[in-house]
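Researcher: Let's try something more involved. This one mixes different molecule types, so please make sure each is placed in the same coordinate frame as the others.
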Amino acid sequence: MTTSPTADGHLNSEPITLDKSAIVDFASRFDPQPYHLDADAAEQSIFGGLCASGWHIAALATRLVSETLLQNGHPFVEMISVSQLNWSRPTFVDEQISVRIALDASFSESPIPDTHAQNLQVDVCNGDGAVVATMSVTAAIAAEPNPGAPQ
Amino acid sequence: MSVLYLRDRWFEDLPIGEFHVFGSHTFSELEIVEFAEAFDPRPQSTDPVQARLNHRQGLVASPWLITAMWMRKMVDYMEVYAQGVNDGRRNGAGVAINDLQWLDPVRPGHTLTYTYEIIAKPDRVIRQKWGLIRSRNEAFNQYGNKVMQFEIDILAERRP
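Model: All components are placed in one shared frame. Result:
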């Protein structure tokens, strides 16, 4: 499936849905706190319900960024740094997330061969369009897109 | 009865400068591939053969596996101190990250050691009861090279 830039120049990904097993599977391996594992404990917690680890959201957002950039002719190679990452609201069971990407027009030197560094502002949104997280990212983008090369 | 200081602290009791070496982990090839396939499918992390030909010249861990393992080691470490504590002194939540950088590739067999230092207590009160603890977190590989760093603001409950 392809996406196209919106009128304001943003790129939007397809949504993905986070079901309970995905949330609990990530959390049991990497973030085993009660509000990511157990529905009853989560109701009593700061979040008020079972919700995804913020690190799970960040990794999935990167996957969506990578897929969306590639579809739009910007071959994402690797994340270089994240100057800011904010988690503004929890993502609960069966909620969708998608990303909205604003690409900075300018390039800078990249530490990774055959790439340039480009800044991206990424909003992670839920199914209602509310922002659940934002990331200011510097990504390595392939300097000369080569559609024939294995990705 | 002994006083178990680390288990018994509110926001006010957490001192700037506190430093912990809180965990280490050796990354396997399988773990690197499985994480990348599920969460961050880049060829340099999913395909050991293809990875030899690309810019990293060999398999490397997803940057988000390095931070996810930070989280796991932090939870395990804190739970040791939190045993028997079931109030606001445990299970705050992270709200913001600054200056997250991955500085050196992490490859199969590499061992990272994670460190944590409280660097600030920003003057904010959130929803009447939470304060913010800002820490600098770093990971070093088996050669002593820093491979990852970030600052994180975590909610800590103020003394009731």
